């Protein structure tokens, strides 16, 4: 199974890429985490934000692997504890399907992207900067995997 982290944004600071890479490389091939970056739309004073969000959403949808189980990361989504995420990860692994985790841009996800989702996951009631979300998601996926495999990382 491959977990695609499809996110709006590119040109991240070095610490973001290093943090993401650290956790992604720890995951085994059967639970591979792959980052797919979608360049953000150009924003300015007179930008049509609705059009930008729609265009970003269309690009995200095009990046989703065929027959993938789509999960949005969205503030109104379901709050999961780490053990609950490990249960979800187990379900995803047992399904044999790829998973696409969608992270929108500054204005959020497009309605079309949200409609494709089978689940919606909220990291917190707090708002995190998009670069940090990549690191948090990678770490939590690795932690959930470590719980499923009795790896000592979760207990550290």
From TrEMBL:
Chief location category: cytoplasm
Catalytic activity: pseudouridine(1915) in 23S rRNA + S-adenosyl-L-methionine = N(3)-methylpseudouridine(1915) in 23S rRNA + S-adenosyl-L-homocysteine + H(+)
EC number: 2.1.1.177
Lineage top rank: taxon: Bacteria
Location(s), subcellular: Cytoplasm
Keyword Transport appears in the UniProt entry: no
Subunit field text: Homodimer.
Protein name from the UniProt record: Ribosomal RNA large subunit methyltransferase H
Record organism: Methylotuvimicrobium buryatense (Methylomicrobium buryatense)
